[in-house]
Amino acid sequence: MTATKAPGADRYLPAERGLDALRAAAECCRGCQLFADATQTVFGRGRAGAPIMLVGEQPGDREDRAGEPFVGPAGRLLDRALEEAGIDPACTYETNAVKHFKFTRKGGKRRIHQKPGRTEVVACRPWLIAEIEAVRPRVIVCLGATAAQSLLGAAFRVSAERGRQLRLPAALADVEPEPVVVATVHPSAVLRDRSDRHDEAYRLFVDDLRSASSGVVTGP
Ligand code: URA
Ligand code: SF4
Fold it and tell me: Which residue from 47, 220, 213 is spatially nearest to 138, judged by alpha carbons?
């Protein structure tokens, strides 16, 4: 068989499904082409049992270098919003729909973020599902369309369903108790909104985080 088509992450998943084993195995994932140009796999951060899972799109330039999710500007906005929403960081598990940074180069050096395609999102989804099964969160907050469409289908529209309490498709994950899934905007979208609606966009984002986490124990 010729290795022409990337087969997705499934065959890189380890038999042991604890977070440490998953993280170690994900370092060697070649489930799509994105591993080739990125610095490293950026796996999720947090503990098994964290009640709130936050799912972004993919690592950015800073995350790619650091090897950790949400350490750049979007992460700082997210941290601030979580604090204002009354969510203890110890209660969150932060990860991304896609674990390698996708970019183009501009002017030689600068790396410009490129949105991952459906093929990459689907290829990488086994890692996200395995994280959900290992962490067993009460609530999964999808930050933006990429995360939401990974878990809720390509037709999902954040603008239409933002803030609603949804369920994971049964075929996707086997988790008990079943988590609630809520979609909101991506913190980068709030960051980029420099219009006079910026403050409102930020406030709505905080409101979504707060209502998604209400009823969830937020003490460590
Ligand atoms: N944006 C994301 O979606 N994830 C990160 O980890 C950082 C920025
Ligand atoms: Fe594997 Fe995901 Fe990286 Fe693609 S983006 S190589 S599927 S970890």
Answer: 213
Where do the H-state alpha helices sit in the chain? 19-26, 61-66, 73-84, 118-135, 145-152, 158-161, 187-192, 198-213
Is residue 134 in contact with ligand 2, taking CB distance under 6 Å? Answer: no
> Which ligand places an atom closest to the C-alpha of 120?
2
Question: For residue 143, which atom of ligand 1 is closest to its CA?
Answer: 3
Model pTM? 0.95
pLDDT per residue as tens digits for the range 60-93: 999 999 999 999 999 999 999 999 999 999 999 9
Condensed to tens digits (0 to 9), the pLDDT of residues 136-156 reads 999 999 999 999 999 999 999
Question: How many angstroms does the Cα of residue 85 sit away from the middle of ligand 2?
Answer: 32
35 lines ligand 2 (CB under 6 A): yes
Topology (CATH level 3) of domain 10-214 = Uracil-DNA Glycosylase, subunit E (3.40.470)
